[in-house]
Write a structure and sequence with these properties.
The structure holds 2 protein chains of 2 kinds. Chain A is mainly α. Helix content of chain A is 69%, strand content 0%. In chain A, helix 6 runs parallel beside helix 13. Chain B has 5 helices and 5 strands. By secondary structure, chain B is an alpha+beta fold. Classes of the chains: A mainly alpha, B alpha+beta.
């Protein structure tokens, strides 16, 4: 991507180099986040976490990934074969597409589309489809329970998510992510829209199926939920998608509320990554603090609290802007 | 409406309180011990297997090979031998082997020792891969412990040294017997024996 900023390359070359960069970022990010998650979990439980492979266990996840690559890809006898094989691909592709518009810094952006935020929200919704495909095709009661829960949860949490994003979009007047960052040159929107930020983080946690909203893959109830029947690299793709989704929702939160790449001294890319990983740490912090909610609590929370609050926030934003 | 708002605010506050608890634990030092890398510090009252005391003055052990411990051991696990070197006042242990895998840690050996040469070890990691790993050679262990604290290791007498000491002792004994025989024959004092051995030392056998 560095070359792209210096030389006026064709769009195709930009896309190809961007795609390679994104795939590299996705892999390294997932390896790092799994290690980080284990370290955060361990330290919150007064343990040191992985320590053996590499300094402070830094390459533990590399070893795990190599092991996972060597695992047999098991296809159970009674599965709906085409859908079963398609699901891990469908879960992973939209995740890659979302990076198309993520602005890492002023110039580090593959395509600065004028529908940026809509594109991200649209493609991140496809994850639900993949989860439903995987759960349904597995022909396993736990998998299908997990898939159904995921669909109900994601439909419920998509609404307040979009409403909170709308209230920011109303203030900026553009879907373009670079415009949203540019609009925060004086003050970050977290100070203008604190309620929207809180609602967004809650919805993002639910969207990425993270604790306390990890009902689709509730270990204590559903074995592993929708990916119970998947093994080897197919399982790894679901795993990779989950951690990349975390990166994307955090990146969107950083753009919408924390001023994107803006920050003193350091170059923009560093500020962007610092903000993203701080938000990811927040999501991990949730995981090791809050117990999983019950399904009725989950739906009640979305429809009775999040959606009304998001609506009120949107209305107040609109009124203030109009006045 | 008021209860609804109150519920949201109280609930939100409880979430923040919960997160405050976990972040406090996040920055606390870890409490688990990394088993093969780290060791616990045992309390002074911990009674591990018996081991030889390092004398703070002589920097070596105090065992005189009197065999009290091996005789008092209810399971007869202690095998030791000692020899008296020419010129020395006391015997010194040349072998001290403890079959720890049968030991009931009764501590009788520590209590019975006349020179307080034994103490309880603080070692608690006793797992081994073979039965022989449970056999403790205390003289080797003493050398390791001396090296660990930077003291000169007490040398373990070699077989040749032991044989030489035994020969010297046998010669001294023979000389004494000759002297006694001469004394019995004639009341006049006998000649000095070739080997310089103190006469007051009682004849001692070497136990193997």
């Amino acid at each position: 991507m560095e070359q792209l900023t210096q030389f006026p390359a064709t769009e195709l070359a930009r896309l190809i180099v961007g795609l390679i960069g994104v795939i590299a970022l996705v892999s390294v990010n997932a390896l790092f986040l799994i290690w980080m998650e284990r370290k955060v979990a361990a330290h919150m439980q007064l343990r040191p976490g992985p320590m053996e492979v590499g300094p402070h266990g830094a390459i533990q996840t590399v070893a795990d990934a190599v092991k996972l690559l060597g695992k047999e890809l098991i296809t159970p006898a009674e599965v709906d074969r085409p859908i079963y094989l398609l699901a891990p691909i469908v879960v992973f592709l939209p995740v890659l597409l979302c990076f198309l518009v993520v602005p890492f810094s002023q110039s580090w952006i593959i395509r600065d589309m004028n529908v940026g935020i809509v594109l991200i929200l649209a493609f991140s919704t496809l994850t639900v489809l993949a989860i439903l495909m995987g759960g349904w095709a597995s022909n396993n009661k736990y998998a299908v329970f997990g898939a159904f829960r995921s669909v109900a949860q994601n439909i419920a949490y998509e609404i307040p998510l979009l409403l909170t994003v709308m209230s920011v979009i109303l203030m900026v007047g553009s879907f373009k992510l670079t415009d949203i960052v540019a609009a925060q040159s004086r003050v970050w929107y977290i100070w203008v829209q604190p309620l929207a930020f809180i609602l967004y983080i809650i919805c993002a946690t639910a969207e990425t199926n993270r604790t306390p909203f990890d009902l689709p893959e509730a270990e204590s109830e559903l074995v592993a939920g929708f990916h119970t029947e998947y093994s080897g690299m197919r399982f790894a793709l679901f795993f990779l998608a989950e951690y990349t989704n975390m990166f994307i929702v955090s990146a969107v939160a950083a753009v919408l509320f924390l001023g994107g790449w803006r920050g003193p001294i350091l170059p923009g890319i560093f500020w962007f990554l610092i903000k993203v990983y701080a938000l990811i740490f927040l999501i991990m912090w949730f995981r090791w603090t809050f117990p999983r909610v019950r399904f009725d609590q989950l739906i009640t929370f979305a429809w009775k609290i999040l959606i009304p609050l998001a609506f009120v926030n949107l209305l107040i934003t609109a009124l203030v802007l109009k006045l | 409406m008021i209860t609804y708002c109150k519920e949201i605010l109280v609930g939100f506050w409880s979430l923040l309180a919960g997160m405050a608890v976990t972040i406090r634990y996040f920055v606390k030092p870890i409490v688990t011990v990394q088993y093969p890398r780290e060791k616990l510090v045992m309390t002074p009252s911990y009674r591990g297997y018996p081991q030889l005391v390092i004398d703070p003055e002589t920097h070596t052990h105090k065992c005189i090979a009197c065999e009290m411990c091996s005789r008092t051991c209810p399971s007869q696990l202690i095998a030791l031998a000692g020899v008296k070197f020419p010129g020395a006042k006391q015997k010194v242990a040349t072998k001290y082997v403890h079959e720890h895998y049968y030991c009931s840690l009764c501590g009788l050996c520590v209590e019975v020792c006349p020179t307080d040469a034994l103490e309880y070890s603080q070692e608690y990691r006793l797992a081994g891969f073979r039965r022989e790993d449970g056999v403790i050679d205390h003289l080797l262990l003493l050398q390791k412990r001396q090296q660990a604290v930077g003291l000169p290791a007490t040398p373990i007498p070699t077989d040749a040294e032991i044989a030489a000491a035994l020969a010297a002792e046998a010669a001294a004994k023979e000389a004494r017997e000759k002297e006694a025989a001469a004394k019995a024959k004639a009341p006049k004092p006998a000649e000095e024996p070739e080997k310089a051995k103190p006469k007051e030392a009682p004849p001692e056998e070497v136990k193997e």
